[in-house]
TrEMBL record:
InterPro entries: Prepilin_IV_endopep_pep. Keywords: Membrane, Transmembrane, Transmembrane helix. It comes from Dehalobacterium formicoaceticum. Residues 7-109 form the Prepilin type IV endopeptidase peptidase domain. It holds the Pfam family Peptidase_A24. This is A24 family peptidase. Coiled coil: none annotated. The chain crosses the membrane at residues 27-43, 50-69, 81-107, 119-140.
């Protein structure tokens, strides 16, 4: 849970700057990636396992990269942010975050008639929903 809390401020800042300026500063994904690295290598946090972190880094990042190269509409900051979150939280947690982010992103795109959306805003919605659910789960089960 400590990893999730440490990433809350950078993810919120990414959402604000992406919404206002359509840019995600590099320090944000670097901070999230470093948090994941510290969690994995220095704190030896057992979850998520290193393989899941690496897959969380590679698969979504590569998918978004190829999507951006083929169709456009996905910025480099979005790709780096998603990859860093994948390493920090692991592939399965990132999949949950992305799934939660999908509906509000589609509603926003439809309502504003935009093909490009500020992805960090919706990643933060998915992240905070996931974080609250994780907190509730830990309070109930532990």
């Amino acid at each position: 849970m400590h990893t999730v809390l440490l990433c809350a401020v950078p993810i919120l800042w990414a959402a604000i700057t992406d919404f206002k300026k359509r840019i995600i500063p590099d320090w944000i994904w670097i901070a999230i990636l470093l948090t994941g690295g510290i969690s994995a290598f220095l704190l030896k946090t057992p979850y998520p396992p290193l393989f899941e972190r690496v897959m969380g880094f590679l698969l979504p990042g590569l998918c978004l990269f190829f999507l951006a190269a083929k169709f456009g509409g996905v910025g480099g900051g979005d790709i780096k942010l998603t990859a860093a979150m994948g390493f920090c939280f692991g592939l399965y947690s990132l999949a949950v975050i992305l799934f939660i982010a999908l509906l509000p992103a589609c509603i926003y795109a439809k309502a504003t008639k935009q093909k490009s959306v500020p992805l960090a805003v919706f990643l933060s919605i998915g992240f905070f929903t996931y974080a609250v659910a994780l907190l509730i789960y830990e309070l109930i089960c532990c």
